[in-house]
Design a protein that fits this description.
Blueprint lengths: L10 H22 L7 H58 L1
């Protein structure tokens, strides 16, 4: 019989509970592994989980870098627009200054 809560019929709630349990197991493994040998099945899960975490973190870093690059490009476009508008304004103001 699987270890599930028969009162829980919501997939979203189940996933939330699974995420919480996974976070707890992850935290436990982080604290236990340096000083104790993990059982083989837990070690297998933990090694796979660490690899997935590393991949997920790298994906997040890559996305942040892309987002930052996009913003830098947008800022540079805006700077260019400001320079163009400043020149146009200066040209328009020339007759008034005379």
């Amino acid at each position: 019989m699987p270890c599930t809560d028969p009162m829980d019929s919501s997939t979203s709630e189940r996933l939330d509970k699974l995420d919480k349990v996974t976070a707890l197991l992850c935290e436990l493994c982080k604290n236990v592994e340096p000083d104790h040998e993990l059982p083989p099945n837990v070690k297998l899960w933990w090694d796979k989980h660490k690899k997935q975490d590393k991949t997920r973190l790298q994906d997040e870093i890559d996305k942040k870098k892309r987002d930052l690059q996009y913003l830098v490009e947008e800022i540079n476009k805006q700077k260019k627009d400001v320079r163009i508008l400043t020149r146009e304004l200066q040209e328009l103001e020339k007759p008034i200054r005379l």
